[in-house]
Amino acid sequence: MLALALGIIALPHLAAFLLAIAAASTSFAARGALFARSSGERGWWIAVAVLAGEGAMLAVAAMRPGAVPDGLLVLLPAQWASMATAAALAGEAAPAALLALAGTAATTMLVAALWPARWPYLVMFSAWLALSALVWHGLPAVTS
Predict the structure, then answer these.
(1) Structure-derived torsion over alpha carbons of residues 109, 110, 115, 121, reported in degrees to the nearest 10
(2) What is the pLDDT of residues 106-136, one digit of tens each?
(3) What is the dihedral of CA 70, 123, 43, 32, to 10 degrees?
(4) Over 70: is that where the pLDDT of 142 sits?
């Protein structure tokens, strides 16, 4: 009521929105931590550049629909975050995108924790492809 009185649109599913923001933030922070751990002081700058590149891809896709193939967009964690937040703002859920963000965060944190071992990168890359496929195909509807 207060939001409407102030002219602010109330979020239909605040919990879903906050969950999407938390999952995206954790995923991006984990990537930043990995770059910082593997590249020293300039690692966070590399992470910012990677995220800026993903953001640029999303901006191009938003401004010119069809310019970026869907098969490429589904590979971007920034797209997963966009899907999850947009769904929450619309009062819907995007469980595949949320799961993908959480899974990416978990595998990236594993790789950062096991640094300098190189084998965890195979786990992270495999998980990233599997989670991209999950987002591409979605999760089956759950009925009660």
Answers:
(1) -100
(2) 999 999 999 889 888 999 999 999 999 999 9
(3) 70
(4) no
